[in-house]
Predict the structure.
Amino acid sequence: MLDLAQLVIVGLIVGSIVGLGAMGLTLSYGILKFANFAHGDMMTLGMFLAYAVVTTVGTGALGPFSVGWAMIPALVIAMVGVGVYAAGVDRVVYRPLRRRGSSTISMAIASLGIAIMTRAVIQMEWGASPVRYASGINRAWTLPGDLKIRPDQVLIIALMIAIAVGLYLLLFRTRLGKAMRATADNPALADISGIDTERIRAATWLIAGALIAVAGVMFGVQSQLKFDAGFEFLLPMFAAVILGGIGNPWGALAGGLIVGISQEASTYWIPTGYKTAIPFVLLTIMLIVRPRGLFGSTV
Amino acid sequence: MPDALLFDPAFLASLSGVGNWSVGFITTVAILGIAVLGLNVQWGYTGALNFGVAAFLMVGAYTTALITLPPAGDFQAYRFGLELPVWAGWIGGAVAGGVLAFIIGLPTLRLRRDFLAIATIGVAAILRTVANTTEGFVNRARGLNGIPGFLQSDFTPSEYRWVLMITAVTALVLCYLLVRALTDSPWGRVLRAVRDNEATAQAAGKATVPFRMQSFVLGGMLMGFAGALWAHRVGTIAPDAFSDLFGTFFLWTMLIVGGSGNHLGAVVGTLVVGFFWFGTPLIQEELPSGLGSQVFVIRQFVIGLLVVLAVLLMPRGILPERSRVSRWAPAPPGRGWLARLRRRTSPAAE
């Protein structure tokens, strides 16, 4: 039973990462109306932008964590960098397609091309071998009941909660959030009500990029970075999005936690090698039983 | 590079001289062309977004390997090993691809179209996981070696390259004629109707989901067949060779650049994109050293760029889909410079 509880803690960490990434994915899915297959590689970009900052500034370990203060500017630069990148891609690729009235499917195909290009650029710039933000061991804390958790992992969960609260405030307490929800609901209606929908779409990309960058940095804090690390998260993130209902950020976060926890906890019963299949199994069950998601699709 | 086994350019470049390179290149293009034709049936004609082509190639390749290999030896662990002739493996590969398409299609084909994309990309990942993880099934990451070639024992290695090429090209031509005949039929017209306006097709009394399923299975069979041909051609297959980038996205680029909805376009796209992909290693030596070492990544970048540019600037591809749906339908007035020239030179045709 102890092992299972320990696995659930690990699952919570993975779930936080998947959930944050999925929140960004579901926002862009709900407002831009297409499945962005470049989302995983945008995550990798976030990881490596932070890595670039960390390697230039250096990261002194802070207290019990394996990373230091340098992580804060690194995180901010990654968020802004990926956000601007995503908005830039929209301006150059997706916006002309929208203007022309292309189908959302051709945007999905274009996003595949963006994914391949992004990954190739990351590989050119940072090479193909895995790297880390900081070397050294992150000694685990022992929780009551003899459960172990590393300080870095506590940091990840705290960050996940902070970002989720921040996104809630943004979506439900600001005019921008209201406009975003209106655009997701009915773009044409939003447009004639005087909302600059193109500006909303740009803002959506900025937010989605920032969210996925946080997920990437969170992943990087506790694992090795590799040029295809983010792509591995694409399927879990899509599973979380569909689980939660497309366009529903809270659903995506809950879906991410469900995906992460069930994926890690499954290793209690089945060989570890199969755990990457769990998100897919959840996805398939969801598609058969309730394709509109557990919580329905609304922003 | 784990992908080396499936699409290793060095494998092509190592055959000395451009003449020899061409033989290998044409064989490769012919085999991949069959898979791209399959994708054209699924996407070009029916609008089914299959982002898991690698899974179908993989299933075809592994099925034929298990059918034609002898039973597992001392240091191997795989099932079956029926030691049947190669043609039985081809059939097995095609059937396996069709069965996989049916299984994927059942839950997803009636849902929104992008769900199929997500599901197929997942299936490819799962099949790689299963092949890599399951003990005693397909020899895990070590892969399957020594897959017999078609008629290989009857020829010397230098002759055999030509036999391979002729086999592959013949297979491509037969598949091309088959899909053309099928899609030019009333059945093919329904597929295009389902793709362009499903509601109208339903209103006209067509059960659209079965049509989508039929086309998805046909495409899956072609991909499975291509995978089987590939396995017998290279002789060695491993799970990681069927990566998303090479097994799926590379073929998508071929179809989109060539012109989805046009079978000849699919083949031309395979040739053009394939030439770029397999040709770059030949000029690698000529490039400045900094660029030369990055050539494989740059090539990957260009594949992505081609997809984006094609969607943006040339959404109909090199050879666009013909708008005339039947040879019995009246011919639309010709477009383009050739038709204009023809009209000018022979006024009687007006």
Residues 17-45 of chain B form the longest helix (29 residues). Chain B has a mean pLDDT of 85.
